[in-house]
Amino acid sequence: MSFVSPDLIRQRFSRAMSDMYRDEVPLYGALMKLVEHTNAQVLADQPELAAHLRSTGEFERLDLERHGAIRVGTAAELATLGRLFAVMGMQPVGYYDLTPAGVPVHSTAFRAVHESALQVSPFRVFTSLLRLELIENAELRAFAESVLDRRQIFTPGALELIDLAERQGGLTQAQAEDFVLQALETFRWHHSATVTAEQYRQLSAQHRLIADVVAFKGPHINHLTPRTLDIDIVQARMPVHGITPKAVIEGPPRRQCPILLRQTSFKALDEPVAFTNQPQAQGSHSARFGEIEQRGAALTPTGRALYDQLLNAARDALGEFPNEANAERYNRLMAEHFVAFPDSHDELRQQALAYFRYFPTPKGLAAKGTLEQAASLEHLLEQQYLHAEPLVYEDFLPVSAAGIFQSNLGDAAQSHYAGQSNRQAFETALGRATIDELGLYAQTQQRSIDECRAALGV
Length: 458
Ligand code: OOG
Ligand code: NI
Prior knowledge:
Elements: H1 6-24, H2 26-45, H3 47-56, H4 58-61, E1 66-72, H5 75-87, E2 91-97, E3 105-111, H6 115-120, E4 124-130, H7 138-150, H8 156-168, H9 173-185, H10 197-206, H11 208-214, E5 223-226, H12 231-237, E6 261-266, E7 270-275, E8 278-286, E9 290-295, H13 301-318, H14 327-337, H15 345-350, E10 356-360, H16 362-366, H17 377-382, E11 386-390, H18 398-409, H19 423-430, H20 437-456
Parallel strand pairs: 1-4
Antiparallel strand pairs: 1-5, 2-3, 3-4, 6-9, 7-8, 10-11
Helix pairs in contact: 1-2, 1-9, 2-3, 5-19, 8-9, 10-11, 13-14
Bound molecules: 2-oxoadipic acid (OOG) and nickel (II) ion.
Nickel (II) ion binds next to strand 1 and strand 5.
């Protein structure tokens, strides 16, 4: 039996999700067009950027690139999702605790982990597990648990195909096609809620996110995010296309050498829903929104510590959550603080602030066999036998993610939870450990160094 590569199943699934979401949320289609148009213009205006993206392979994956987000209610749901994503070569990377920012969830990102798999499809799903233990009202908590225990978010076909993939070690072409269709059903939007209008109101009063998870049949995809090469241009153009962006761009400020991840979203839409006790009457729920992202260099632990320090300092100086009224001051404070973050590729590399991939140059390949065996990386770079490109950041940022959540939950949701960060409980629910993202970047960097040494014979 011959199996389809999980990377190709993921590529196909990502496309199917995008098509489904575009049909469900037309504004996502409008945003995709805007991003595509902006990317084409940026590439035409900046041939150096186009060359850089070509040399790393990011050029080819740019149009495929997107992430989505879902929220689940129980350990069993999370564990089965983990198995479903594994069929597509996606593993849980990173642990994000959103409770300090007043969002009662903790999360991971399912994604491909090897650079060659990311090249085929960098599709990622930010997946949050509701922390029901944070609901203070015991009666409401018990009600939420009973509703969640009764639902089945996977089709029987999806469950069978997950089993089959695990038993066989993969899926055939026909099985993979079926799997994509079945898996898609879990993430579809349903107009009919599973609770009464009054129950919805109570859940929502506790936290809008709790209603979003508990009151529906399944974890509808709540946004899909295309990757742009210039997020400031897209942010500025969104209103022209009838899209209202959130007040500030999350993540680092604009720089010469982009680092980590910058994100902005547009507000969730009010959508009609029918409650179980009044199927004809129209209630409303807002959950689904649009987002764009710009990705830059993955930072080492040292670089990340500096990023966190500068971000916290800028936010402390602002003294409140960024919003419409203080957006300009926030942007100014961020720019001022981030002057302290080196902004050239050479500095980022020499000070070990970012991870890099190394490539042999034609000059290096021609010199193979004549080079000093113990030549250092710096020497090979100086002599232009090698060149270095920053590794793209494939993950998320907790402070930014909280900002994206909040922009879609309303300002009333900005409270704090006393609960402890609980990675262990998350991993117990998932049924496995989450992977440390920094280790993945370090491995990719090391593989590229090993390959370069082999290619140059040093
Ligand atoms: C997830 C919000 C976080 C991101 O890109 O940081 C996120 C959610 O709203 O479920 O998508
Ligand atoms: Ni997102």
